[in-house]
Amino acid sequence: MTTQRSQALADRLEQGARALATLAGGLTDAQWQTRIPKDGRKVGVVVHHVATMYPLEIQLAQALASGNAIEGVTWDAVNDINAKHAGEQDSVTKEAALDLLRRNSAAAAAAIRALSDAELDKAAPVSLNSDAPLTCQFFIEDHALRHSYHHLAKIRGAINA
User: What are phi and psi of 89, to 5 degrees?
Assistant: First the structure.
């Protein structure tokens, strides 16, 4: 049963994913291959990265919704995942990245809509955030929801530089 809060969160995630897909879909081949300053990854790799991370971000949010702590997830681990992904997806096509973005963002939004207000309010320690006891809703907002907006801004900066 979708609540007003879970619906609003899912809608905001979908808005960010659509904005990223719209921008990415209109990029030239040269823009798709542009490296993002300070990040080093290509625009296309970053679009695919956002899509790839939705399932993991939602899995972690669901753990919090169940009252379970997130343990062993560190920024070093995140950086390793991102570096491995960048190497593996260096030549990802626009079509493949956009397809994955659409599918995984839709699945993430559906999973968020399935959360109750009580689940959104559950808090547990999150290793990624120094074991601070964070709510499921905060985790969703800070990771799955924010992710597309964060990279959208970086991509805009790279292609407009």
Answer: -110, 20
Q: Are 70 and 126 in contact (CB under 8 A)?
A: yes
As given in the structure block, the two tokens for residue 79 are: 């950086």
Percentage of the chain exceeding pLDDT 70:
100
93: three-class secondary structure by DSSP: coil
Q: What are phi and psi of 130, to 5 degrees?
A: 55, 35
Per-residue pLDDT of 64-115, as tens digits, reads 999 999 999 999 999 999 999 999 999 999 999 999 999 999 999 999 999 9
pTM of the prediction? 0.95
Which residues touch 147 (CB under 8 Å, ≥6 apart)?
Answer: 16, 50, 53, 54, 57
How far apart (Å, rounded) are the C-alpha atoms in residues 18 and 159?
18
